[in-house]
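User: Could you write out the 3D structure of this protein bound to 2-acetamido-2-deoxy-beta-D-glucopyranose? I've included everything you need below.
Assistant: Certainly. Input first, then the structure.
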Amino acid sequence: MLPPGVRVCCMARRNRICVCLLAVLTVSTVLYGHYYITSESPGSPKARASWSQQTVDQLSIQSLPGEVERAANDAEERTEKRQTAPNHVPERAKFPPSQEKSGSPCQGSLKSKVKTDPLYGERFSFNVPVLMWDKHFTPVTWNSLRDRKVPYGWHGISYSVLSSTLKLMNDSANSWLFDARPSGNCIRCAVVGNGGILNGSRQGKAIDDHDFVFRLNGAVIQGFEKDVGTKTSFYGFSVNTMKNSLIAYEVYGFTKIPQSEDLRYIFIPSDLRDYLMLKSSILGIPVPEGYDKGDQPSKYFGPQASAKKFKLLHPDFLAYVRSRFLRSEIMKSKFGYLYMPSTGALMLLTALHTCDQVSAYGFITDSYQDFSDHYYERVKKPLLFYANHDMLLEAKLWKSLHQHGIMKLYQR
Ligand SMILES: *[C@@H]1O[C@H](CO)[C@@H](O)[C@H](O)[C@H]1NC(C)=O
Ligand SMILES: *[C@@H]1O[C@H](CO)[C@@H](O)[C@H](O)[C@H]1NC(C)=O
């Protein structure tokens, strides 16, 4: 873990990545158990040091790709074991069984495209669990995740916190992403990132026309309805990114987390804070301990939040996504252990593993330099890159998935 007050960011030059370390003065106590590093937080650097790509490559290798591959393989192996075991946990996190017809009625679903695609046929595995709920808390899962670092595992999180949190994820809605099947044959999803490309895009209606709309972090809507739409079916976040977004984007009108009766929240279990907040949210009590101690979950999710409002991404899904889709060179760097796909990437890949058709709006494209960091900035700001994400790798992935006809990427 990095000491509190240290943020790591990564500035992109034309083609190559150049990493810069933003060290805020206090470098004191070492903080275990959570990342104090944020992906989407503001603030000005007090000190900055840059390394060339060459230097990055020379930094010590802390997170070996082999370890990552093992994590993904473990996940698949456990999935297979569970499927052959007598009371196996169902892995598809889509619809309640009563609504799941055998085979998708959707013609030309992305799953059928993936199956015949030479590249992505190998990479996608629709058997890896997307969501986690009470039934997953078994000795087998505990043993395999307890030593793996967050967010890909549970290292540093106590058995009692995990068991008490997951025990509460016992509503059938926790195991299915979609609570109800839409009227058409295909489940059409729009995932809306917060990229500046949406400013002036007039895509609001197209976005709202989808059955389900995913949003994340600082998803400002008011004043941008014509560009980004108004519908929100899912809001995805980690406690860290959610709270940072409320601070960083308050000035742009992001003053509260989206709330509505139909809206569901997708927790990214990036560390202990997420499990504690999730548990407190379901119980309707202030967070009892840790960094967010005393925080009222109703402040974020409304007073009526119960278990069925929440979905929790499975750590195995995060490991699989990193290994198969977003295995970054950053993982070899000194702060490689902090690397994880961005919140937007995790939401988009969640949609790609659950929806029949996916359109991505506000995600990074080749022309990102023409646009501001976010669609709601009033003065153009360059896209800020952080060393715990690899936005250029994500850009390549979105472009490629678009070219292979697996999803539609909004570009201009
Ligand atoms: C879920 O767990 C809570 C707390 O243990 C319990 O009160 C409730 O009855 C359970 N609900 C279901 C549907 O099993
Ligand atoms: C947003 O778009 C408008 C024109 O559509 C432009 O004038 C403005 O500068 C843009 N804002 C940013 C921050 O790029």
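The chain has one domain: 111-178+187-409.
User: Perfect, thank you.
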